[in-house]
Amino acid sequence: MNPILADIYSTVIPSAPYLIAAYALVWAALLVYVIIVVRGLKKTEAQMAVLEEAVRAKGGD
Amino acid sequence: MAKKTTRVPEAGGWPDAVAVPALIAGAVLTTVGFLMAFLWAAPVNGAALSAPELVGDVMVTHQQLISQKIFYFHMPVAIVSFVALAFGAYYGIRFLMTREQRFDTCSRVAMEIALLFVVLTMITGDLWTRFEWGVWWTWEPRLTTYLILMLIAIAYFVLRNAVDDPERRATYAGVVSVIALVDVPVCFMITRLIPSSIHPVVAREGGMSPDMAATVFVVLAGMMLVGYGLYRLRFREARLGERLQALKDMLE
Amino acid sequence: MNAVETLHLTKAFGTRRAVDDVTFSLPEGSFLSIFGPNGAGKTTLLRVLSTLARPTGGEARLCGVDLKENPDEARGLIGMISHQSMLYPDLTAEENLMLYAKLYGVANPAARVSELLDAVGLSHRRLDAVRTFSRGMTQRVSIARALVHDPRIVFLDEPYSGLDPHAVEIFDELIGAVRGDRTFVMVSHDLAKGFSMCTHALVLARGRIVTFAPKDEIAFGDFSELYRQTVGMGVA
Amino acid sequence: MPRVAPSTFSQYRTLLAKDLRQEFRTREMLTSMGIYALLVIIVYGAALALTAHGVDIVHMGGGLLWVLIVFTSLLGLARSFAREKEQGCMEGVLLVPLDRSVVFLAKATSNILFMLAVEVIAVPLFYFFFMTSEPAAPTLPFIVAPLLVGTVGMAGIGTMLSTITSNTRSADVMLAVLFIPLIYPLLYACVTATTAAIAGTEFWTDFFVMPLVLACGYDVVMLLVCWVLYDFVVSA
C-alpha cells in the first residue's frame, strides 16, 4: 500500500472499531428494551394466572 | 351537563395493528439506510492528501472521514428522541386538562421511548466524539444538550418512583414533562449561541449534499417507525398491567 | 336552601373510587357527622367538599354555589378545622389570625382578630408564638382561624385527635358558642360523641353511602349495630 | 360580616410579609445558607491551596462562584417549602379564595430575597478569599447582572420544584435531581457572563451581553411556564 493510499485510509482503520461499536450498541439497546417489555408481559401473564385461580376459587366456594 | 367524553387512547384497534408492520418497516429502512451510508453517500473529505491518488475510478484528493458515517444514525435518533419528548409533554398536558389516568400512562410510555432514544443518541454521539476529537467527552454544545435531556428524563422517572399517591404522581409527572419540553429547546439554543470556550471556535458544520440528506431521511423514517412500534408495544403492555390491576381491585 | 347538596359526587383515580356516587343534601344550620371504617373515603369526601380536592364526577353545591363553576366563591363560605392546626408555629397567635383575616379580606381585621381571641380565651397569649402553645390551645386558635371570615359552613376533620378530655370539653363548649346558624360537617371516629352532637348522621363504606338520616329517625342502639356491621363488612 | 374581596396585590403582599416575618423571627434559613456558603468556600480553600499559582483563578472564579450559589440555594429552597407543609399551613392558604399563582409569586419573591441576602455575604467573601491574589478585569462590578438574573431564574424554577418535591420521599435529593438539569442552560449562560466580567474579554457582546440576554429569555420563559402550571402542582 503506497503512502498516499495509506494516508487515505489513515482515518478509516482507527475509526472502524468505534463505528462498529456504535451501530452494535444501538441495536443492543433497542434489543434490551424489547426484552424488558417482553419480560413485563410475562410477569403480567403470571399474575393473570394467579388471578384466574382466585376467581375460580371464589366462584367455586 | 353532558360530559364531553374525551376520546381516550386504548391499546388494540388500528394503532396496534399498524405497530408490528411499522416495526418491520422501520428495521428494513434503517438497514437500507445503514447500507446507503456506507456504499452510496459520499464520504466527507478529511485533511488534504499530499498528492491525488486514483482509487477505483475516482480521483481521491482528501482523507476520507469514515467516522462521519455515525452521523447518519446519530441525527435521526436524536430527532426521534425529541419527538418522543414532545409526545410525552402533549399527553402530560392532556392529563392535566382532563385528569384522565390513561393520558398519564401514555405520557409515561412516551417519556420512556424518549429516554431510550436519548441513550442511543448519547452512544452514537459519544463514540463519534471519541474518534473525532480523540477524547471520551467534551463539553461540546450538542453532546451536553443531550446529556441534559437524558438527566431530565431520568429525573422524571426518579420523581415518579418517589411519589406514592397516583393522582399526585401523575400531576407532578405531567408538569415536569411540560417543563422539560420547554427547557430542552432553550438548552439547545443557549449552548449553541454562546461560544463554548473563551476563544470562539469557528463552527465546522458544512451543508449536506443531496445524497447525504437522502440517507439521513431514510434512516430517520426508519427510526420513527421503530420508535412508534416500540411505543405501541410498551403501551399495550402497560395497559394490560393496568387492566389486570383493575380486575384485582374489583375482586376484593 | 340547603347548605350542602351533592349529586352523584365521585372522586376516583383510575379504577380506585375513593368517593363513589354520593348523593345527599343537608339543610342549613344542621350538624352532620360522617362515620365509616378507615379508608371508607370520609376524609376524601371532606376534602372534595372543601375544594381541597377536585371531584372527578358529579356535582356539589355549598349554599347554592357550584364547586366546579366558581370554587373561589365557595371557598369564601367555608372554614376548616382539622387535626393539623394550619397555623405557622413561628408566628404569634395574633399574627396568624391577622394573616388569614387579611387574606380573606375581612373588613376590620384588627377588631375581628381581638374579638376572636377573646372568644377562644387566648387574648393574654396573643403575642406568643404558636409553637409554645399546648395542643388544646393550638386547636382553639385553629377554631378562631377557621371562623375569621364568618363562614356559613365549617368542616371538622377529626378535630378531637390528640386532645385530652379537658381540652375536648372546652372545644365542645366553643363549638356550641360559635354555632349560631352555621352548618357543621364533622368526620370522626368517636361514635358516641359524633352521634350525640349531630343532627344528621352519614355512614360511608368503600366510598358509598350506607345510610344517611336525621338523628331523630334512628335510635343510637340500631345505629351502633348498623355501624358494627358496616365495619365488619371489611375495610376498603 | 362585610367582606371586601381583597386585591390580588394585597394578598401577594400579605403572603410575602408572612414569609419575611417568619424568616426574620427564626433566621433559620439565612443562617443555614450563610454557614453552608462559608463551608463551601473552605472546601474550595482546601481544593485550591496546593495549586495556588498553577490555577488561573481569574477564569475559574466565575464557575466556582456559581457552584457555591447553586448548592446554597438548593439548601434554602428545600427548607422554604418544608415549612409550609409542617402544620398543613399550605392547605390553610389554599382554602382562601385566591389565585394560586399569587402563592407562587410570593414564595418565589421571598426565595429571591433570601438568596440575594446570602449572595451579598458570600460573593464578597469568595472574592476576599480567592480573587485578591490576581488583578481581576475592570469590568468586575458587572458580575452583579448575571448574579441577579441567575438568582431570579433559580428562585422561580426552584420554588416550583420545591413545591413538587416537598412531599415526595427523600425530598432534598429529589429537588437536586430535578433542579440542576433544568437550570443548566441558565447556569451555563450566567457562568459565561460572570467569567467574562471577571476576566474581561475583547468579545464583550459575545461573552457578556449575549449570555445575559439569553439568561433573561430563560427567566421569562421559565417563570411563565411555572406561573401557569403552579395551580396544578400546589392543589395536587
Describe what you observe in this structure.
The complex is a heterotetramer of chains A (61), B (252), C (236) and D (236). Chain A contains two helices and no strands. Chain A is an all-alpha fold and 61 residues long. With 236 residues, chain C is an alpha/beta fold. Chain C has a domain at 1-76 and 193-236: 3-Layer(aba) Sandwich (Rossmann fold). Chain C is 36% helix and 28% strand. Chain C has eight helices and ten strands. Chain D is globular, with a radius of gyration of 19 Å. The relative contact order of chain D is 0.14. Chain D has one domain (8-235). Chain D is mostly helical and 236 residues long. Classes of the chains: A mainly alpha (61), B mainly alpha (252), C alpha/beta (236), D mainly alpha (236).
Helicity level of chain D: over 70%
How do the helices and strands follow one another from N- to C-terminus of chain D?
Answer: HHHHHHHH
Mind summarizing the main beta sheet of chain D? none
Helix content of chain A: over 70%
Shape, per Cα inertia axes of chain A: rod-shaped
Q: Got a strand count of chain A?
A: 0
What proportion of the residues of chain D form beta strands (DSSP E)? under 5%
Total number of domains of chain D = 1
How large, in whole angstroms, is the Cα Rg of chain D? 19 Å
Strand content of chain A: under 5%
Question: Helix count of chain D, per DSSP?
Answer: 8
How widely separated are the two ends of chain D? 32 Å
Low-confidence stretches of chain A: none
Largest sheet descriptor of chain A: none
Overall morphology of chain D: globular
Number of strands of chain D: 0
- Report the average pLDDT across residues of chain D: 89
- Provide mean pLDDT of chain A, rounded: 80
Main interface: chain pair and counts: B-D, 34 and 40 residues
